[in-house]
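User: My collaborator sent over this chain with a note saying "see what the structure looks like." That's all I know about it. Can you take a look?
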Amino acid sequence: MLRPTVGIIGVGTVGTTFAHLLYQKGYAINAIFNRTLGKANILAPRVDSIAVTELSEVASQCDLIILTVSDDAIASVAGSLAEYITPDHAVIHVSGAAGMDILEPIAKGGAMVGGL
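Assistant: Without extra context I'll predict from the sequence alone. Here is the result:
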């Protein structure tokens, strides 16, 4: 079974943990984005990835995008990311507080969406 390539947006504790766990399980982490590049630059070589400076780069290099930004940033990031998303993408957010409606701009583009 072909595994999706993964992009991580948000390099805090949760994003770092997801990147390490998925990498250990054999997933290719193709791109890591963080609003401040320093954390992305530290994580990327640890999971054989690259730090990118644009959301469009995550979308162009990844099938599955995991949003691990703070709850109050999910809507903004989803809105900005939506213009680069195609029906071939899957995007999930990791939030205990946000529902699926927060990813509506992405779902309108035909991508699969989900939440953890």
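A starting point for your reply to your collaborator: Residues 102 and 116 are 13 Å apart (CA to CA).
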